[in-house]
Amino acid sequence: MDALPEAWSQVRAPVIVPLLRLAVAVCLTMSVLLFLERVYMAVVISGVRLLRLRPDRRYRCDPLPEDDPELGSSAFPVVLDDSTDEVIKEMVRMECERWARKGINITYQIREDRKGYKAGALRAGMRHAYVRDCEYVAIFDADFQPDPDYLKRTIPYLVHNPEIALVQARWRFVNADECLMTRMQEMSLDYHFTVEQEVSSSVCAFFGFNGTAGVWRISAVNEAGGWKDRTTVEDMDLAIRASLKGWKFVYLGDVQVKSELPSTFKAFRFQQHRWSCGPANLFRKMLMEIVTNKKVTIWKKIHVIYNFFLIRKIIAHIITFSFYCVIIPATIFVPEVRIPKWGCVYIPSAITLLNSVGTPRSFHLLFFWVAFENVMSLHRTKATLIGLLEAGRANEWVVTAKLGSAMKMKSANKAGLRKQFMRIWERLHVTELGVAAFLFSCGWYDLAYGRDHFFIYLFFQSVAFFIVGVGYVGTIVPQS
Fold first, then answer.
1. 317: which residues sit within 8 A by CB, 6+ positions away?
2. Using one digit for the tens of pLDDT, what is the confidence trace for 269-289?
3. Residues that are catalytic
4. Which of 130, 194, 211, 344 is deepest in the core (most CB within 10 A)?
5. Contact residues for 164 (Cβ-Cβ < 8 A; gap 6+)
């Protein structure tokens, strides 16, 4: 029984303390970098709003004539649909037939296989003969609902500005109020669309294509090499390759397209794995291509490598879990290692407040958002490392399941929940429960022997991991 304490005392001073101090220093450095990036974003977006640097002031976007014989159909894009939902496919087919009967030039096409997933579908769609007569392609996921004037508000930027390759619209979520998990997603994504996309579009005319609700110039797609399925983020891959060719992008925050958030934890977890693993894997594959590119400025290279990839896609994920869920709790058992208050309180608080500007209506949910994001950082960190190392699940593609509109969901669940309930063991998540136990133990130890009052945070965070671990998060769909 005395062997374990003796071994701990032997390795504590020469091994544990130096390694933990190094880990704290690395995490504090990453926190400062993330904080500076958020401050930079806040300064730029404030300048953009104060100076009213809207896209229509920077680019010509005169409305297209309703009946222009010179433009004809070239001012309108071909719309490609990639859906695994047979019901949606049938609805699209029927809608296309309805418009065709009215004399509208519209074609419905599907592919017979799933090779290459979404990239494969888009690549196959671009090979049809009718695409040669088109200049632009509008891309929407199956659950997106553009307004009738969507093309009239986006196409003029492409028609009048030959240097622009992509016009991206903002997502608006129809089921954000469905549950607390969808509210948390809305807060994260609103910051992305309100700040990150706006800043990148304004500063260097580059941002990652969101994979949907965007219009591409077909010649830019072809010049960039078309759609590739080498990673699970084919949209980001194409955007970076097009940017390295010198093409510009425009983000229209006032053009909003309705969409749906995943409301089950399983669907959200698979989505976050793809969104975290894919960019890290793409960074691994494109780093040298970006560095050696001679067609874009050094400023754009720095923006893509440092701001776009390193800070937002790698550091932001890794620092959240490693620092707040591993390093800080570990220091409780090693009092020789101290974390300055600015590193564990002030900077995290400032970053959280800066993130809140995207969704003012949810400001009162910031505490829950922090706890939930820390839980999800476990999966994002794992996915990021898998992508960087190109390990087992690097190319895993699971279609994000959507449950339909919130009203349909409610009516379906009212009947289903009366008859059956999901068995508890079907929704247990062992990893989250393990982290919850670790944080809870650290909290009790800090309450008994600590001096930094970390137990306040640790107890609340352990509860968040426990709630997710037992499956009481998101919409629970009974299993038959």
1. 276, 377, 380, 381, 383, 384
2. 999 999 999 999 999 999 999
3. 82, 235
4. 344
5. 59, 157, 158, 217, 247, 248, 249, 250
User: pLDDT for 54-96, tens place per residue?
Assistant: 898 899 988 877 655 554 454 455 555 555 455 566 777 888 8
- Whether 64 and 75 have beta carbons less than 8 Å apart is answered as yes
Nearest to 366 by CA among 382, 377, 350, 379: 350
Domains of the chain in start order, with CATH, are: 2-43+313-400+416-470 (no CATH), 70-310 (3.90.550.10)
Beta strands in 213-328 (DSSP E): 214-217, 248-259
- Rounded distance, CA 149 to CA 480, Å? 42
Cβ–Cβ < 8 Å for 276, 317: yes
What is the C-alpha separation between 309 and 207, in angstroms, rounded?
Answer: 11
Name the residue among 204, 238, 201, 270 with its Cα closest to residue 56: 201
pTM of the full structure:
0.88
- The whole-angstrom separation of Cα 83 and Cα 92 is 10
Half-sphere exposure of 209 (CA within 13 A, CB side): 29
